[in-house]
């Protein structure tokens, strides 16, 4: 029987369409999404999306102006910005530094120490900020103490004292004691005055120098350092870390012998 014969016993021709298979459907798929809505609903949905986009842009703009440094827009429309942000969208951080630091402030200390032979002398100035800087430089994971302890203590003192180093509030005495304990601890670690010497008084000062402006800038700043020197502070027993020699340690040791 030939492949082209017809009849119930005829063999199928390779590549010929199967007569039993249903024909391919060419009907269009139903619309989806917004296109499935009627024209009035499409218009309403488009208006709603546009309204959400406008509100989002306004909100981002208001928050940006709220956290940005003071400028012409915030000066003219500050009240409207605050009414938008507060209280629901209040921000407790700043996008940019409101007053970028343009000075290098070094905290230095010297001490009056008493040696084991009873001699009293004044040490050199110890640059504590420089020591912290050396500890941080090249260290991928510097400690919080190295980065912030001394700096925050000095900021705390300056914020609670006037230009004549007089406390301007109840926290002034606290800031003095905090700063004094830090510098006494640093002096003990540095071995100020030699072995077994006892720190009796300390004096702290800051040395502030302006950061030079870039070469393209026309700004002129002074390159002379400004010193702020505090009065001598008597070291009390509770200013010392545990295990250090007390103020009267030399006298106690002498009497024991």
Topology summary:
Blueprint: H1 39-67, H2 72-85, E1 103-114, E2 120-122, E3 126-127, H3 128-136, H4 144-159, H5 172-190, E4 198-210, E5 226-229, E6 233-234, H6 249-256
Antiparallel strand pairs: 1-2, 1-3, 1-4, 4-5, 4-6
Helix pairs in contact: 1-2, 3-4, 4-5
Shape: elongated
Helix content: 25-40%
Low-confidence sequence ranges: 249-257
Structural class: alpha+beta
What is the tally of beta strands? 6
Note the gap between the termini: 133 Å
Report the portion of residues in β strands.
5-15%
- Tell me the major beta sheet: 6 strands, antiparallel
Number of helices: 6
The H/E string reads HHEEEHHHEEEH
Whole-angstrom Rg: 39 Å
- Average of per-residue pLDDT values: 82
Top keywords for this entry?
six-stranded antiparallel β-sheet, 257 residues, 6 strands, disordered C terminus
Walk me through the structure.
There is one protein chain. Helices cover 37% and strands 14% of the residues. By secondary structure, it is of the alpha+beta class. Strands 1, 2, 3, 4, 5 and 6 form a six-stranded antiparallel β-sheet that branches. α1 (39-67) packs across α2 (72-85), α3 (128-136) packs antiparallel against α4 (144-159) and α4 (144-159) runs antiparallel to α5 (172-190). The longest helix is centred in the first third of the chain and has 29 residues, at 39-67. The model is unreliable at 249-257 (pLDDT under 50).
């Amino acid at each position: 029987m030939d492949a082209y014969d017809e009849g119930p016993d005829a063999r199928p021709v390779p590549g010929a369409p199967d007569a039993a298979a249903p024909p391919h459907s060419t009907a269009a798929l139903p619309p989806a999404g917004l296109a499935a809505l009627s024209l009035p609903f499409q218009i309403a949905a488009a208006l709603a999306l546009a309204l959400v986009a406008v509100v989002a842009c306004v909100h981002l703009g208001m928050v940006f102006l709220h956290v940005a440094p003071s400028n012409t827009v915030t000066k003219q429309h500050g009240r409207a910005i605050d009414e938008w942000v507060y209280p629901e969208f209040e921000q407790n951080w700043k996008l940019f530094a409101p007053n970028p630091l343009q000075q290098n402030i070094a905290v230095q200390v010297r001490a009056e120490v008493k040696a084991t032979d009873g001699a009293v002398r004044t040490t050199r100035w110890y640059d504590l900020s420089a020591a912290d800087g050396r500890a941080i430089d090249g260290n991928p994971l510097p400690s919080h103490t190295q980065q912030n302890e001394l700096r925050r203590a000095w900021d705390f003192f300056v914020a609670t004292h006037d230009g004549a180093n007089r406390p301007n509030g109840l926290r002034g005495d606290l800031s003095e004691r905090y700063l004094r304990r830090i510098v006494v601890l640093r002096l003990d670690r540095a071995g100020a005055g030699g072995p077994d010497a006892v720190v009796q008084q300390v004096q702290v000062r800051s040395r502030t120098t302006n950061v030079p402006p870039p070469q393209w800038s026309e700004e002129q700043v002074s390159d002379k350092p400004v010193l702020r020197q505090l009065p001598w502070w008597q070291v009390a027993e509770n200013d010392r870390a545990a295990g250090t020699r007390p103020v009267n340690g030399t006298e106690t040791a002498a009497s024991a012998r």
